[in-house]
Amino acid sequence: PHVLTERGIFRYEQVTYPMEERGLQFGDGVYEVVRLYSGAYVWLQEHLDRLYRSAAAIRLSVPFAPEELSERLEQLRRMNDVREDAILYLQVTRGSFPRSHTFPTENRPNLYAYIQPMARKTDEIAHGVHATLTKDVRWEYCYIKSLNLLPNVLAKQEAAERGAFEAILHRDGIVTEGSSSNIFLVKDETVYTHPATERILNGIVRTRVKQFCGELGIPFIEEAFSVHDLARADELFLTSTTSAITPIVQVDDITIGDGRPGAVTKSLQAAYQKATQPAASN
Ligand code: PLP
């Protein structure tokens, strides 16, 4: 496979990083994950917009201008001859310099991006998943898609060890989001989710769900709900680039609704399917 870097496109084995890389030593960088279905990028522009916003928030410059970056990512896709379902991983870091907390005086950011196959999570999407509740111990700027993922890693690991697919994070009982997803509650045919404040990452799929709700006439309320509301929820689901719209049927020992994916979730899944069909599917 090929990798795009700030210096051009190289073979995977050719790309190595020095010890004193600020991404490694400080997590000083931002990233994106973009879906590809049947070899086509899904909502690439939205992801790139968010990448530049995240970078600006930490005063980091992305090595390429937006149009050039999308051209290069297209080139990367062609060179890898991607035809299947996959993801693109892209990160920008503040570069390699002798270790010091303060910014380097020179502007020499590093970028790399590569594509790896990833099948659709068909089983989870069809039947739903279990989740656990965990305290949200992250910093206050979760709207930045930064490389500092230790709290997310620990939460997801704890969930996995309890046999769950995702960790639902809460701050003082208020559900914020998942360790790598946004969380939505359905009650009386209305969808609720945490508002897009600095406390959550405003997911690209989250934004689409808001749009689908508008199109389908489903009330969409950006109002936080609490862990106590889970017991009274009709449906619960998560969204992310890798997991699309996935029903949550159990949270710790609380069964959601009748323990099966609900009608609102299914209609949103259908809208997602329709929106992500390759434009020229013939
Ligand atoms: N929230 C967090 C913390 C995430 O890491 C992610 C994605 O990985 C999301 C939400 C969902 O965002 P998106 O729909 O853009 O993938």
UniProtKB/TrEMBL annotation:
<dbReference type="InterPro" id="IPR043131">
    <property type="entry name" value="BCAT-like_N"/>
</dbReference>
<keyword id="KW-0663">Pyridoxal phosphate</keyword>
<keyword id="KW-0808">Transferase</keyword>
<dbReference type="Pfam" id="PF01063">
    <property type="entry name" value="Aminotran_4"/>
</dbReference>
<dbReference type="InterPro" id="IPR043132">
    <property type="entry name" value="BCAT-like_C"/>
</dbReference>
<dbReference type="InterPro" id="IPR050571">
    <property type="entry name" value="Class-IV_PLP-Dep_Aminotrnsfr"/>
</dbReference>
<dbReference type="InterPro" id="IPR001544">
    <property type="entry name" value="Aminotrans_IV"/>
</dbReference>
<comment type="function">
    <text>Acts on the D-isomers of alanine, leucine, aspartate, glutamate, aminobutyrate, norvaline and asparagine. The enzyme transfers an amino group from a substrate D-amino acid to the pyridoxal phosphate cofactor to form pyridoxamine and an alpha-keto acid in the first half-reaction.</text>
</comment>
<protein>
    <recommendedName>
        <fullName>D-alanine aminotransferase</fullName>
        <ecNumber>2.6.1.21</ecNumber>
    </recommendedName>
</protein>
<keyword id="KW-0032">Aminotransferase</keyword>
<comment type="subunit">
    <text>Homodimer.</text>
</comment>
<dbReference type="InterPro" id="IPR036038">
    <property type="entry name" value="Aminotransferase-like"/>
</dbReference>
<dbReference type="InterPro" id="IPR005784">
    <property type="entry name" value="D_amino_transT"/>
</dbReference>
<dbReference type="InterPro" id="IPR018300">
    <property type="entry name" value="Aminotrans_IV_CS"/>
</dbReference>
<comment type="similarity">
    <text>Belongs to the class-IV pyridoxal-phosphate-dependent aminotransferase family.</text>
</comment>
